[in-house]
Write a structure and sequence with these properties.
The complex is a heterodimer of chains A (about 400) and B (about 300).
Chain A (H helix, E strand, L loop, with lengths): L1 H24 L23 H10 L12 E4 L9 H16 L6 E4 L8 H11 L4 E4 L5 H10 L4 E5 L7 E6 L1 H15 L4 E6 L4 H17 L4 E6 L6 H13 L4 E5 L4 H9 L2 E4 L12 E7 L2 H13 L6 E4 L6 E3 L9 H16 L9 E2 L5 E3 L7 H5 L8 E2 L5
Parallel strand pairs in A: 1-2, 1-3, 3-4, 4-5, 5-11, 6-7, 6-8, 7-15, 8-9, 9-10
Antiparallel strand pairs in A: 10-12, 13-14
Helix pairs in contact in A: 2-10, 3-10, 4-5, 6-7, 6-11, 8-9
Chain B lengths: L1 H29 L7 H19 L2 H25 L4 H20 L14 E2 L9 H5 L1 E2 L1 H19 L1 H11 L1 H6 L4 H27 L11 H11 L4 H24 L7 H19 L24
Antiparallel strand pairs in B: 1-2
The chains are: A alpha/beta (about 400), B mainly alpha (about 300).
Chain lengths: ~400, ~300
């Protein structure tokens, strides 16, 4: 009797293990060979860098020949997470295609936890496979990447919003340019001076987005204010829905958004309110509510880094790209919500952003406690941008002290 | 006043899924079976309900499918813990992993598919006209109204009926029930399966009523809150209701205060810490020397029943 019970038990455990495996098979196969291009990010990759690559090959003396480039990528979540990692994955595949790299010239490892030794071990493995360019796409991987960069001085490292070093470049996208435009449009769509913003964690990258949205709103309407509600969680649909509902119930009818759930879209649809999307084109979540979305496209950045390595001009510096290069992108304006006149107006503002006539974080700037944070004519340093921890003067809300 | 009414109404709506999970777990633990897999069962319920609703267009069918899926997880869990006598803590944690993985896998094509009508808030004619209480209690969705019936029902069953007495005995001293000629294994199967059906409804609340929509790990840890609630409710459905409302109230206030008093000077981290402070506080108040009639958990909770070892 006992023996049969044990046998049944073992069988059940095996069945559980197998069912768990089938669940993983599709999502966490370590090496990416497929070309899933369903993310919006890959649709509009910049076209010109191919020529740059050819030009670079002519002067290959100092750099690595394109055929010997091998790119290793560490993603911190699953590459089909519908947000952050998915956008990076799609951009790497687009860069590979643009530059004509072969399948074995790029290894993408996803779902690498940014705690513990997993990142360092993964990088060791990638270098063991012959990778000479390593990319880390989450700021949580910074420490591990920097430590590995010291151990492998002959490998080019790239860290999202890290600190540049000899063989470690850092990069980011000026998402504040698109957020500025979304804030501008929001202020024009609002039925009052007060807008809302549903935000995830009070962390620098989110704070920057909130500030840019508020500055854009102020540019459109000098009296505009933006009420921010923090969910204090990167992912909690129920909380985000409740937070959005509480703003909508107070009479606000336009929300900015920084997060990756469908909950705010549902709340806005129910209330007949408008919102901007984030990460991906959220139009399909709420066709009557989403007026446009900020989208990531990392392709131009990745192509640029690889081209620099080929040309021998690679340096360990901080590289920002914005709306002018297509790295920060807007989903098409929802013409059911945004009038043709407003779109024309927005295009004018976008042109000024692209030409640099409008500097989103240009001085003078003061925070919402009245303190001046940037003098007239001054500019933020990289560190100040990466670590932004204040709310501009027309944001209603607080940051943890 | 309007503001207080809206906060209380939102609190009830926010607390409901946690309460569903707690009620299911109370039934299961009263039968002596510890099930820490609430998060996994909720997710399976959530995804099953959503897929059924989208495919069939019927919310009633979705609720039925949710409960069946919950019962299935209950059956598997009962086979593991009652018949095969595996460690209940480990099996429960395994259930979380399996539930998260399976729901993510089968839910993938339905991720971010929006547009399902779901259970809308429904004002009950008459009752919703009562000043203050009406808009607080009777402008909710059907799944909340179901709780108004379920909580007293489970309470009366547990404390006022003979089968309820047997259920409590099952978790205290299964040997005595066995000696009295009762089928301990059969009863444990029954209550674990029943309990999980109710837990699964807690998950479906997110996908069919609150959001509605499916996304990976949509419960975002509420299953763990529910497991903690069961302990501080002393396995009592009425206390679990109070606990769920405290949890919901603190969460809702944490968000609403940011709108009402943006300059109050309370850091948001402090506000988001409150649910945990409240949990610890209620735990201290409900156990130990603070309480004259101490009620520890069911005596046989977590221990498997082995006739041969009697």
């Amino acid at each position: 009797m006992k023996v049969t019970k044990k046998l049944i038990g073992l069988l059940l455990v095996l069945a559980l293990a197998l069912s768990a495996l089938t669940g993983c098979a599709q999502t966490s196969a370590p090496v990416a060979a497929d070309t899933s291009s369903d993310s919006a990010a890959s649709d509009t990759a910049a076209a010109e860098p191919t020529e740059a690559a050819e030009a670079a090959e002519a002067t290959e003396a100092a750099g690595i020949p394109l055929s010997e480039i091998k790119v290793g990528v560490v993603l911190n979540t699953m590459k089909e997470d519908g947000g952050w990692s998915q956008s990076h994955n799609a951009s790497f595949l687009a860069a590979k295609e643009q530059l004509g790299l072969t399948d074995d010239q790029m290894i993408i490892i996803d779902n690498v936890p940014d705690t513990g030794n997993d990142c360092a071990n993964t990088i060791e493995m990638l270098i063991g496979e012959g990778c000479n360019m390593i990319f880390g796409t989450s700021s949580g991987l910074t420490d591990a990447i920097h430590a590995e960069a010291k151990l492998h001085p002959d490998v080019y490292f790239h860290q999202f919003e890290g600190v540049p070093a000899d063989n470690c470049a850092s990069y980011s996208v000026r998402d504040w340019e698109t957020m500025f435009l979304l804030g501008y449009a929001g202020a024009k769509l609002s039925n009052g001076d007060k807008l809302g913003f549903m935000a995830a964690q009070p962390q620098a990258s989110v704070v920057r987005a909130v500030n840019a949205y508020a500055l854009g709103a102020k540019y459109a309407n000098p009296n505009a204010t933006v009420q921010v509600v923090w969910a204090n969680s990167w992912y909690d649909p129920a909380k985000e829905k409740e937070g959005a509902t509480s703003m909508l119930a107070s009479g606000i009818n336009v929300l900015g958004y920084h997060g990756s759930t469908t909950a705010v879209a549902e709340a806005c649809t129910d209330a007949g309110a408008f919102m901007s999307g984030f990460h991906i084109d959220m139009h399909d979540y709420a066709p009557t509510a989403v007026y446009s979305s900020h989208m990531w496209n990392w392709t131009p950045l990745y192509v640029e880094f690889i081209n620099r390595a080929v040309a021998g001009t690679w340096t360990g510096e901080m590289l920002y790209m914005g709306i002018d290069s297509g790295c920060a992108q807007l989903a098409p304006w929802n013409t059911d919500i945004v009038s043709a006149d407003l779109i024309a107006e927005l295009n004018g503002v976008q042109a000024k952003l692209e030409s640099g006539e409008i500097q989103v974080f240009g001085g003078p700037l003061s925070d919402n406690t009245g303190k001046e944070v940037l003098a007239a004519g001054a500019e933020f340093t990289n560190d100040q941008l990466i670590g932004m921890m204040f709310l501009v003067d027309n944001v209603i809300g607080q940051l943890p002290s | 006043m309007d503001w207080i009414v809206s906060v209380v109404a939102a609190t009830i709506g926010y607390a409901a899924p946690v309460l569903y999970a707690s009620l299911g777990e109370i039934i299961s633990e009263r039968a002596g079976v510890l099930n820490l897999g609430l998060e996994g069962v909720m997710l399976i319920g959530a995804v099953t309900g959503y897929i059924t609703a989208v495919e069939s267009g019927s919310l009633a069918l979705a609720i039925l499918a949710t409960m069946l899926a919950g019962m299935l997880t209950g059956l598997v869990y009962a086979v593991l813990t009652v018949t095969l006598q595996t460690n209940q803590v480990v099996s429960g944690l395994a259930l979380v992993t399996v539930g998260t993985g399976l729901s993510g896998f089968f839910g993938k094509p339905y991720t971010a598919v929006t547009g399902l009508e779901g259970f809308k808030n429904l004002a009950i004619p008459g009752l919703s006209q009562i000043p203050v209480l009406g808009p607080m209690l009777f402008k909710q969705n059907v799944m909340v109204y179901a709780l108004y019936i379920l909580v007293p029902l489970i309470y009366v069953f547990l404390y006022k009926t003979r089968p309820g007495l047997k259920l409590r005995a099952l978790g205290e001293n299964p040997g005595a029930l066995d000696a009295a000629g009762m089928n301990v294994f059969g009863m444990r199967y029954l209550y674990v399966i029943l309990g999980n059906a109710i837990v699964a409804l807690g998950g479906a609340y997110f996908t069919l009523a609150y959001i509605p929509g499916w996304q990976d790990s949509i419960t975002a840890g509420k299953g763990w809150i529910a497991a903690a609630l069961v302990i501080f409710s002393s396995w009592n459905p009425a206390m679990a209701t109070v606990g769920a409302l405290i949890f919901g109230g603190v969460e809702v206030l944490g968000l609403r205060l940011q709108v009402l008093f943006p300059n109050i000077g309370i850091p948001t981290y402090f506000i988001s810490m409150l649910p945990y402070v409240a949990t610890v506080l209620v735990l201290i108040l409900s156990t130990g020397s603070f309480r004259k009639h101490r009620k520890p958990g069911p005596a046989a909770l977590g221990a498997f029943y082995d006739r041969e070892a009697r």
